[in-house]
Amino acid sequence: MEFELMASMMCANYGNLEKEVRELEEGGIDSFHIDIMDGRYVPNYAMSLNDMRYIAGAASRPLDVHLMVEHPNTRIGLFLSNLRPGDTVYIHPEAEYHPSTTLQAIINAGMIPGIAINPGTSVETVMEMLRIVKKVLVMSVNPGNAGQMYLPYVGKKITKLLALKEDMEFEIYWDGACGADKILEYAPKGVQGFVLGTTLLFGKGQPYGETLQNIRELRF
């Protein structure tokens, strides 16, 4: 079964980021998930513009940029100018007065437009944007910190999105508390990709290639 695996780079070892990028690519990661936090939209600071710029220059695989910032349209150019055509940029609809304007800027720059949906955000409130975006990142935990517990009610939201994705032409991605059980359950249902952090990928004491191979060989 084909599904995408993205490395949550806020969980990487920053003592040697170049080595982390190289070993993840050699191990077969599909893309690098970059969490940008401003300390306002979420109560935390994570990766910076410079972190994103460095990984964009060091990596050959695409970037998957998750903007957890207030009013991203006021600074979207800073991010887009340091990315490559084909990279993905997610925004949170609640963080913007006119999210469709920001999504159009992402499209105009040659990037893949996406929205991230918080656990407390209903599918109904983002319905029109589902016709604009190509990717929907479903947060299974509240945004802002790694290592949180899965919120079970998010599964019903994914079921709703799965029923819409063919007609509206978007793909669904999972972010937060992603264990093997979640991949086994939701990849066969149609979830396209999974962001991997401390639950499955980082801090496991074995080469990334071995870890990623084990994930891809899960028995469905």
Keywords:
single chain, 220 residues, alpha/beta, 8 strands, 30% helix, globular
Structural class: alpha/beta
Cα separation of the termini: 8 Å
- Report the major sheet: 8 strands, parallel, barrel
* Mean residue pLDDT: 93
Query: Looking across the biggest beta sheet, what order are the strands in?
Result: 1-2-3-4-5-6-7-8
**Residues in β-strands, percent:** 15-25%
H/E order of the elements? EHEHEHEHEEHEHEH
Helix content: 25-40%
Q: Taking Cα atoms only, what radius of gyration do you get, to the nearest Å?
A: 16 Å
Q: Compute the number of helices.
A: 7
Unreliable stretches covering 5 or more consecutive residues: none
Number of strands: 8
Shape: globular
Short description:
By secondary structure, the chain is an alpha/beta fold.
Structural account:
- This protein is an alpha/beta fold.
- It has 7 helices and 8 strands; from the N terminus they run E-H-E-H-E-H-E-H-E-E-H-E-H-E-H.
- The protein has helices at residues 17-27, 49-58, 76-80, 99-108, 154-168, 180-186, 208-216, and strands spanning 4-8, 31-37, 63-68, 88-91, 112-117, 135-139, 171-175, 193-196.
- It has an 8-stranded parallel beta barrel, surrounded by 4 helices.
- Helix 1 (17-27) runs parallel beside helix 7.
- It starts with a strand and ends with a helix.
- 42% of the residues are buried.
Task: Record the SSE blueprint.
Layout: E1 4-8, H1 17-27, E2 31-37, H2 49-58, E3 63-68, H3 76-80, E4 88-91, H4 99-108, E5 112-117, E6 135-139, H5 154-168, E7 171-175, H6 180-186, E8 193-196, H7 208-216
Helix pairs in contact: 1-7
